[in-house]
Amino acid sequence: YVCFDVGLQEAKFSEFPPLPELSRYQPPEPPHASAAAVRAIAERLSNAKRPLILAGRVSRSIEAWQQRIELAEHLGARVLTDLKVAAAFPTDHPLHAAPPSMHATEQGLAAVREADVILSFDWNDLGGLLKSAYGDQRISAHVIQCSLDQTVHNGFGMELQGLPPADTYTLTDPDALLADLLPAVQALGAKRYTPRPMRATGSVADAGPAQTNTGIAMRVFAATLANYFESQNASLLRTNLGWPGDAWHFRDPLDYIGYDGGAGVGSGPGMIVGAALALRGTERLPVAVIGDGDYLMGLTAFWTAVKYQIPLLVIIANNRSFFNDEVHQERVAKMRGRPVENKWVGQRIEGPDVDLAAMARGQGARGHGPIKDIDALNRLLPEAVAAVRGGEVVVIDVHVAQEYAETRATNVFKRG
Q1: In the structure, what pLDDT confidence band is assigned to residue 156 with cuts at 50, 70 and 90?
Q2: Which residue from 154, 229, 369, 374 has the least number of CB within 10 angstroms?
Q3: Rounded distance between C-alpha atoms, residue 267 and residue 332, angstroms
Q4: Closest CA to 196 of 48, 90, 54
Q5: What's the whole-model pTM score?
């Protein structure tokens, strides 16, 4: 996004001004922690019995990815990642403590409570996670926060989330601290963890019945996509809000590009097209899974992808509802003693169903669907991938079940 001063925009144009000396506008070196601070953190982690690493907002660097793995294995530390941000650690690594999710699951919160030292590499809303894990009780772990968030805690926009409690705080770049910390930890003792084989990808057969009375079961839908794209060198650009985090394993920084940091709708199409543009010309296949509400709020972004020949595969997890709001309205109805049966009012997108594929074709993309059974989806995927590899934009409308995961309870989806 480029914003020019209004005076510059409206000034009379005569000729291009001379370009500045680009060598004088290089990005600065990332801030590093002091040697004493690095040594103290290394000693604290090395002496911990149950260390936990929160791998949050970090870079796409493959070198830093490998360093995070080495650090976790040297310490024998468990690791958590978050679906709201990009891939930061292999999700099928045995030290990965819980499937990544949009909301904290009980499995993840248990790992937080069990830790005696917590190292946060710029976790998105660390204060919120600790509050969810401990409630009003005293946090028993020693918390090490590595983040530049302190620079926005006096800002007006409130992007800062809650101020997290931290026993050790380093106002540093996470990758910079990691590069300094790893050799310091290695110098203090032997490696605690012997690498074991990665977890196997779950099969579609393990995901349960394929069909429900409201569409394809979400776990079957997700497992089908994960199994098919595992051999396609795909980058998952986004997921819908109901995506099961253990369905698709991430083994590289570009395997998953991340969400928008929140849990709203409308940002998806634009972010997807931007990510696909960044990947254009690489060997990566750009694939996005998006909810129908998110799609409807910004689908004209796909015209931009068609116009500028940005190859992209978009798969709509269409449950014919702003279902996240249905879940919220059900919760509020129970709290206030109101009829739960009315939760769909103002949220359902059916009767008549919207022709999402036709709307994609209206932007110049290929539109398929609605696809209502898993076999039809399996038959269509090779054709769709071939079209994307040929430079096209393809949108597939898939009717999925109206399901949701219980926040903080489990990563197993239940029928609504």
Answers
A1: low
A2: 154
A3: 26
A4: 90
A5: 0.85
